[in-house]
Amino acid sequence: MIMILFSSIFIIPALMGWGKIMENIWGILFQGISGKILAGIMGISIIWTVISFFIPLNIKVEVPSILLGLFSFFINKLYQDFRQFSKKDFIILSVSSLTVIFAGSFYPYILDHFGYYIPTLKWLTEYGLIKGISNIDLTLGQMSVWHIFQAGFSNFSDPFLRINSILLIIYSMYSIEKKNWIHLCFLPILLLFSQSPSPDLPVIIFSVIILNEIIAGNRNITLLFAFSVFVFTIKPTMIWLPILVFLNFVFIFKSNFKQFLLGSSILFLFFVKNIWTFGYPVFPIAIGDLGLSWKPNSEVLKISSQFAIMKTYDMQYTYEEIQNFSTWDYIKNWFSLEGIKSKINIIFILSLIIFIVFAWIKKKKLITLICISLLIKSIIVLAFSAQYRFFTDVLFAISFILFYDYFDQKKSIIVFSTLSLFFISILSFPGIIQKYIPSFRVGSFMAGFEKEQIYKPSTYEYQRFDRFKVGNLKFNVSQHYPYSFDTPLPAITPAYLFDDVNAGIFPQLSDKNDIKKGFIPKKMTSEEKEEAQKVINTIKNNDK
Question: Mind spelling out the 3-state secondary structure of 465-484?
Answer without folding.
Answer: EEEEEECCEEEEEECCCCCC
